[in-house]
Specification:
Blueprint: E1 7-13, E2 30-31, E3 34-35, H1 36-45, E4 51-56, H2 60-67, E5 75-79, H3 86-91, H4 94-97, E6 103-108, H5 116-129, E7 133-139, E8 148-152, E9 155-160, H6 167-170, E10 174-183, H7 184-192, H8 207-214, E11 219-223, H9 236-256, E12 260-261, E13 267-269, E14 274-275, E15 280-281, E16 285-288, E17 292-293, E18 298-299, E19 304-306, E20 309-310, E21 315-316, E22 321-323, E23 326-327, E24 332-333, E25 338-339, E26 344-345, E27 350-358, E28 361-362, E29 367-375, E30 377-379, E31 384-385, E32 390-392, E33 402-404, E34 409-410, E35 415-417, E36 420-422, E37 427-428, E38 433-434, E39 443-444, H10 456-465
Parallel strand pairs: 1-4, 1-6, 4-5, 7-11, 12-15, 13-16, 14-17, 15-18, 16-19, 17-20, 18-21, 19-22, 20-23, 21-24, 22-25, 23-26, 24-27, 25-27, 26-28, 27-29, 28-30, 29-31, 30-33, 31-34, 32-35, 33-36, 34-37, 35-38, 37-39
Antiparallel strand pairs: 2-3, 6-10, 7-10, 8-9
Bound molecules: uridine-diphosphate-N-acetylglucosamine and calcium ion.
Length: 468
Amino acid sequence: MVPLGSVHVVVLAAGKGTRMKSRLPKLLHRIAGLTIIERVLRIAATVKPQTITVVVGHGADELKAAVTPMTALPIQFVLQDQQLGTGHALLQTRSVLEGKSGTLVLLSGDVPLLTAGTLGALLDTHAQAGAAATVITANLPRPYGYGRIVRTNGRITKIVEERDASDAQRAITEFNSGIYAFALEPLFKALGSLGTANNQGEYYLPDLVGVYRKQRKPVATYTVSRADEVRGINSRTELAEVSTMVRQQKNEELMAAGVTLIDPATTYIDADVVVGPDTVIHPCVFLEGSTRIGSACEIHAGSRIVNSSVGDRVCVRNHTVVTDSTIEAGAMLGPFAHIRPGSQVGEDAHIGNFVELKKTVMGKGAKANHLAYLGDATIGSATNVGAGTITCNYDGEKKHQTIIGKGVFVGSNSTLVAPITLADGSYIAAGSAVTTDVPAGALAIGRARQENKDGWVAKRTVKKTGNS
Ligand code: UD1
Ligand code: CA
């Protein structure tokens, strides 16, 4: 067994992704919340590499900008100016990797389902065989579009691309995953010797297998049992299929951990979402980004929760949207509530139908049960906000704060013109336009007093008809 030495990862990410028909670089499309490249970099991290080199070309700037802030890994970029093939792409890393010893793991930027276990097994096989190259392969009855593994007496001799294959070679079921381990020492010299005598006139990385075998260098293979694991994404259809597989796996993990999914097929939960046991999730629910849901919650159909933290025993009724906010234990939201960024709904608080919160803190047990807009507000515990209440937080130039104390009663259809403070225990008469601060325990009435005109209706009838 030849020791692996240090491990360096290269990710090929310069291709155009023509078949996606997208303005966005292919690897920035998302699968269950994570970009394809982010998934591949997470896989790369599992082998604890000394360096990760990403070969960029098409959409290089966009890709670099997206990758740089999302990870603390030792990532460097090299540019492949013209995309002359996968062999040419790897050759571009010569400037940063030549002269290093150890093992290079080559990942394809568009193969995001590989597991850490498989990558570990690739490295074990590679070390045990003392190989110059080790290829991950898989089998499909008809591996259309993939390079085929050609063997003689059981040993790999070369890889032939679909377009260059004879009919007999196309019938081979074993295909190249595009994931390899290479001994670094002989690599760059061999890459320099690749030619372009093929259907696409490109430098094919898989040709390295043939080159090494002619030089009588050992080449090994590691075959995965599930071909799904090495699925490449080249089209929107493949993106959707892989997304379905990823979601299904996440849903299975959650169910195994005690979460009820009424209909897993229509439950959309991103990779990093955490859900506590005995929570029930109804169909067509989206839990996205860094969302954490506590235990014994009920999330009803059509709700979407993004980058938010939800405590235990929270009930989210149908069609509620929560973004970048915190919901504490026992709270009730919706139906049709909109909790916008920077909000905090306290323990046992109620936010009812057609209530919108933005940068608003609702205290423990506070209620806004119907039709309200509460923006840039702090609302104390046990306060009741009546139907139709609006915080007028914006004067056309600046946003202003509304401070509402504890145990306040805000009558229906009140207009609270910020900046304004309603002190503890104050009462606001229904229909008030409140423009000045209300002291603790006071009643504020901010509306014209009602006047009743006796007999008015009868008088009007006489005028209209002329009857007495
Ligand atoms: C490649 C393999 C094929 C294998 C398949 C597995 C070659 C010639 N063929 O085919 O044997 O079965 O992957 O998925 O390698 N790239 C660059 N620069 C380039 C060309 C490609 O960075 O000049 C990148 C692409 O962005 C992509 C990866 O390399 O991430 C693979 O390229 P792609 O064109 O998708 O190769 P396939 O046709 O899928
Ligand atoms: Ca591909």
